[in-house]
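Fold this sequence, please.
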Amino acid sequence: MSTSASEDSWIYSTFGDDPDLGELVEMFVDEMEQRIASFQNAFEQGDLNTLGTLAHQLKGAAGSYGFNQLTPAAFDLEQSARSRSSAEAIEASLDRLTQLCQRTRAGAPDNA
């Protein structure tokens, strides 16, 4: 029942076509693989404090960089980690956020 990301469902920043912010958005997207790895590592180590902190940081940064679709998923993961939800619930939140993060792209849809 899980939805898989396809090239038709890329997530672009609302600032993607802003010449003043384009480079910053690109750097944010370029760092996404490392963010995902950090989330996975914290989860695998059972470090829920770090996982909650990382999710909180992404929640704020995603909104600041125009990736508003990531904010609710990051919030869900943050809450799951901080409330010490079941491993299954945390993993489900992490998987959802990871899928969204993997769909982020710099630039605007027209010139991708």
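The chain has five helices and two strands. The radius of gyration is 14 Å.
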